[in-house]
Amino acid sequence: MKRLFTSVVGCLLVSLALAQKPTTTPRQRILQVMQAQTAAWNRGDVAAYMQGYWQSDSLVFIGKRGLTYGWQPTLDNYKRSYPDAAAMGQLDFANLRITPLGPDVAQVVGKWHLRRPAAGDLEGHFLLVFRRLKGQWVIVADHSS
User: Fold this and answer.
1) pLDDT confidence of residue 22
2) Residue 90 — φ and ψ, nearest 5°?
3) Cα torsion for 136, 78, 121, 30, to the nearest 10°?
4) Whole-number Cα distances in Å, 7 to 3, 13, 36
5) pLDDT digits (tens, 9 = 90+) for 105-132
6) Under DSSP, is residue 75 helix (H, G, I), strand (E, B) or coil?
7) Per-residue burial over 121-139, b = 16 or more CB atoms within 10 Å of its CB, e = otherwise
8) Between 116 and which of 15, 18, 26, 89 could a Cys-Cys bridge form, CB atoms 3.0 to 4.6 Å apart?
9) pTM of the model
10) Which domains does the chain have, with CATH numbers?
11) Max alpha carbon distance in the chain (Å)?
12) How many other CB atoms sit within 10 Å of the CB of residue 144?
């Protein structure tokens, strides 16, 4: 009887373990943010693309024109530089290297490429700093060249 009870309890524990939803890792969450950004960009929606960024005046974007602080100024710069879907082209990221720096912070290094048949392709490299704020992974610093 004791052996049967132990077997039943063991089977129940295994069943419960298998029934648990696997937790999403920070790396997977960050990749989801970047995939959502890519999809938004590729449909010409800069505002949706910016949802991957921290909506704060403390967001920092470093580009060829220098430093930009704040979510709204960063959005405004994107809108000026990419006024329509043709100028935006099709975005893809490559060579991603996601490195956790702590439980709620990670850096992502990679390459970006814009395929723009009419205007000419653009590409460069980036370093992003992601933080988990209020349960969401967002970009708090972006250095793109």
Assistant:
1) 58
2) -115, 120
3) 0
4) 6, 10, 45
5) 999 999 999 999 988 999 999 999 999 9
6) helix
7) eeeeebebbbbbeeeebbb
8) 89
9) 0.83
10) 24-144 (3.10.450.50)
11) 77
12) 13
